Amino acid sequence: MHYLIVILDESANSFCYYPNPNRQQKLMDLDVLKKGIFFAQKEGWLINFLIGKTTLPKEYKEAIDVINHIMITPPEYPQDAVEDVLVIDYDSRKTFENIPDNPDKNVILRIDKADIQDLLQIVISLQGKFKRINILIQNINLMTDDDFEIYKSQLELLSQWYLDQSKGSDAVEISTLSDRLFLQNMNNCDAGVKHITLAPNGKFYICPAFYYEDETNDCGDLQTDINIKNRQLYRLNHAPICRQCDAFHCKRCVWLNRKTTLEVNSPSHEQCVTAHLEREASRRFLNELHTLNIYNNKKIEELDYLDPFDIVNNWK
Ligand code: SF4
Fold first, then answer.
1. Closest Cα to atom 2, ligand 1: which residue?
2. How many CB atoms lie within 10 A of CB 90?
3. Structural domain includes residue 234
4. Residues near ligand 1 with C-beta < 6 Å?
5. Total domains present in the chain
């Protein structure tokens, strides 16, 4: 493990595929927080804190400041540390005008699949506000063939726009297009392998999604230590489909896997196709960069499938 995720506020916005909890604002008890921080210190881990809209009391800030950490926050939270990450849920009724410019920061942009036809415009409206935009489709598991077509065409438009931006010196990073360009190996979420989550009840969970879905699905607590059943199943080498794959940027979300296939190590068709549409858009984008003599040393192979499971018979 490398780090601990701490759900500091029950109402903290989702920063990933799981739905927003829609819970009352309630901070983790200070005592649980301090014990969680001590646990992470003993292990030598960093902490990612999930922050809600509640302003943190002074004693919470003092407790947190003893450990290296990142805050994952709503836009309303004071943005004073450059390493903190904002989470924004796209809402077509609102604009991003009130979000201050944070040109050195990362943002996680969560979009409902119903809004993906607006993806290019949404990204353009965030232009100049952030250094990096992490795009995440909230209900990726419900993507249909029509949605895939829309996403594919939006990625193409985004790629053309991004190509123009990339010629400038202050180009923003866009996760779905730029990440695969630079990865040589899998860079998945790795919940249960690289990180574990501490919930306000003092118990550990594979990730926040597991906590919000079913609080009885814990894997130990601060008193008894972490106890992940069949923990090998969360590792890439025990994921028979994903270990054949080179969509290196894919989240390989184990919560989505369990929800859609009942196996934490088997992905859904929807997750794979979405990741491969992004991989293909990245490949085409890279080819465009090659015509400009940029990143000539990078290469992404062309594939004739969008779901690795379709070539199951070719696996060695
Ligand atoms: S695209 Fe599919 S097979 Fe590849 S890493 Fe993602 S979930 Fe696994």
1. 272
2. 19
3. no
4. 241-242, 245, 247, 250, 252, 267, 271-272, 275-276, 308
5. 1
Per-residue pLDDT in tens (0 to 9) along the chain, 316 residues: 999 999 999 999 999 999 999 899 999 999 999 999 999 999 999 999 999 988 899 999 999 999 999 999 998 888 778 889 999 999 988 888 888 888 889 999 999 999 999 999 999 999 889 999 999 999 999 999 999 999 999 999 999 999 988 776 667 899 999 999 999 999 999 999 999 999 999 999 999 999 999 999 999 999 999 999 999 999 999 999 999 999 999 999 999 999 999 999 999 999 999 999 999 999 999 999 999 898 889 999 999 999 999 988 787 6
Q: What is the CA radius of gyration of the chain?
A: 20
**Mutation test of ligand 1: which of 272, 303, 309 has the most ligand atoms closer than 8 Å to its C-beta?**
272
CATH number, residue 23? 3.80.30
The CA 261 to ligand 1 mean position distance, Å, reads 13
| Dihedral, 208, 209, 212, 215 alpha carbons, nearest 10 | -80
Q: CA torsion angle for 137, 173, 187, 79 (degrees, to 10)?
A: -80
142 domain residue, yes or no: yes
**Which residue segment(s) compose the domain that 18 sits in?**
3-182
148 occurs within a structural domain: yes
Q: Which atom of ligand 1 is nearest to the CA of 253?
A: 7
Asked if residue 104 lies in contact with residue 86, where contact means CB atoms within 8 angstroms, the answer is no
Among 269, 271, 309, which residue has the most ligand 1 atoms within 8 Å of its CB, making it the best to mutate?
A: 271
Angle, CA 245 vertex, CA 152 and CA 295 arms, to 5°: 65
Closest C-alpha residue for ligand 1 atom 5? 242
- The Å distance, Cα 48 to ligand 1 centre, comes to 25
The residues facing 71 across adjacent strands are: 49
Kindly give the number of the ligand 1 atom that is closest to the alpha carbon of 251: 6
- Domain assignment of residue 310, yes or no: no
